[in-house]
Amino acid sequence: MGRMLAKRAQLYDAIRRFFRERGFLEVETPVRLPANAPETNIDAIPAGTGWLRTSPELAMKRLLAAGHEKLVQLAPCFREGENGRWHHPEFMLLEWYRAHAGYIEILADTKALLATLAQELCGTTDITWQGAPLSLAQELWEKRTVSDAFIEHAGWDPAQHFDPDRFDLDLVTRVEPALATDHPVILIDYPAPLAALARRKPNDPTRAERWELYLGGVEIANAYSELTDPTEQRARFEQANALRQKRGAQPYPLDESFMTSLEHLPPSGGIALGVDRLLMILAGANSLDGVLPFRHG
Asked: What DSSP string describes 225-261?
């Protein structure tokens, strides 16, 4: 574990240097919150009169709305009931946000970041994970729309005929297992109901400007162009809370300070990247057990 602790420290240092050289401001935001963003399938851990954060997203967007244009944070986050090979209830997220940008600009950042980190930690962008080759070279990234991937591997288009239960099942059993594992794969332009904080595509309201990144078949990051309409955001949060209640989960209060700040949020792009999973792949570990020094339920 001593080697892995050193690798983690090296990774954090490389991440911070990457963003510092590109003019980002590193910030820290509260860990205990009066409200997280209501999301249908993400449960927060209670802490006193509030909850531990599931993401620093709302606070970082408030800073964007206050005029800070390029922000980054390495953020310990917490989610109830997440445990397994790729999951742990306490985990590290890397989130960064850019004003006057969108999900395509965030994708360019991500390609450059991962190539840089692979060089820093492994000495090359061509690595091996689980006995198989995986190249993080920027020119090899594959980009597929969610609709195209589902039509090919599951036989239907979820943007045109959305079914949340069928989507989740087919994503896990048909689409994800069919993704290439020897280079990064982006699934882009999600059905609009699956992007509670992302803006819809201007020329196609059935889809949202959201993408997810897979490395070696493992989901690593979730990015989107940010929704800036307070009225639509409130409606989406209320819908998420209604779906939470439908599955027997507690609804969450809305962060009214965040809702007010949306009136001043410029067009922006942001991303959440799972640092523990990334370290697992760059360090050649088979699961999070190999990279978390203190594993608990």
From this structure: EBP--HHHHHHHHHHHHHHHHHTTPPP----HHHHHH
CA distance 159 to 203: 14
Tell me the C-alpha distance between 260 and 151, whole Å. 40
Going from N- to C-terminal start, the domains of the chain cover 2-290
Q: Using CA of residue 198, residue 167, residue 55, residue 275, what is the dihedral sign?
A: negative
Q: What is the pTM of this model?
A: 0.96
193-218 pLDDT, tens per residue? 998 899 999 999 999 999 999 999 99
Fold classification of 2-290 (topology level): BirA Bifunctional Protein; domain 2 (3.30.930)
For residues 125 and 114, give the distance between their C-alpha atoms in angstroms, rounded to a whole number.
Answer: 8
Phi-psi category of 208—alpha, beta or left, where left has phi over 0 and alpha has psi -120 to 50? beta
